[in-house]
Each structure stands twice: as C-alpha cells, then as structure tokens.
Amino acid sequence: MKRIFDLILALVLIVLFSIPMLVIAALIKLMSKGLAIFWTDRIGVNNRIFKMAKFKTMVTNTPQIATHLMKNPEDYLISGGEFLRKYSLDELPQLFNVLKGDMSFVGPRPALFNQDDLVALRTAKGVHKLIPGVTGWAQVNGRDDLPIPVKVSFDEYYLKHRSFAFDLYIILLTMIKVVKREGVQH
Prior knowledge:
Largest sheet: 2 strands, antiparallel
Distance between the termini: 35 Å
Radius of gyration: 16 Å
Number of strands: 4
C-alpha cells in the first residue's frame, strides 16, 4: 500500500508542481553556472548508493559534506538558494526519486555517501532496511538541529512504529514545519 500511495502522490505532485519546477529551474540557470538540478550520492535502502536529485542551491565547487559541518555555509549559497532551502523547494526534484522507487515520501532522510557515523549507527539499529524518505520522523522533530544519535533514535522509533496512519501524520507535520520554516539552519 505504501508504494502505491507513493506512486500516486508523486505523479499528482509532479503534475501539480511542474510549472513551478520549470520556473525554479529557469531562475537557477539565470543566476548560476551549471545545471539547475544537482545529483548527489546518497545512501539508500540496505546501504546501497543512489543518485538523489535536488535543485541547486549552492555553487558548483561546494564540498560534499553535511551543511551543518561547514564553517560558513551561507558563503556557498547561490542567489535565491536560501529561499529555496527555507521552504524546501530544493527538494521538489526528489518526487522523481520517489517515482523511481529510490525514495519514499516518509522514511529516514538519506545520508550523504560520506556520513559513515550516521550510516553505521542506522545499520546497527536496523534502520538501513527502510527506504529513505523525502521527510521522516526525525525531520519533523528537529531536522538540522538534531545530533546524529538523536536523529537515529527517531529513525528507529519510526522503524518500530511505522504505519500508513503514522506516515500521513508525518506528512501533515512536514507541511506545517515547512510553512513555519522550522528546523532549517541554512
């Protein structure tokens, strides 16, 4: 049922947001060099690497590390990048990752390929067996503000309590958090 829900919702949202996504892509192309979509190696289900799509919000030569580990992440933002991040508009291309099956709407956020500490802890807790999500229980409980052990404890809670109703609740909380811009540092 989860996969069917993901497919239907992804298709509906792709149609609904197709014009805004085209506008965002055009604006990014006008304001920066390179492609409007940034492909990043992420850790997927069973710790397999997949390519996750995001709208480009940072300059081309930005180090591929978690934003919170950068000294001055704002120095790497392209014009308009902060706005896209604050409202999670940079995440819209992930609808295609959901359509492909690399991601679900709800699950643990996919780790960067080099976040070995996060991957190891998730693997120890069995969280690596879950398909990563556009949003998740940890996302709505702190997002960028959470230290890795706390984030993984939320991921583990989701693993043990996941259900369709819980997913709908997380999606609702995500919409509220996005509108309020809660938990976004950069």
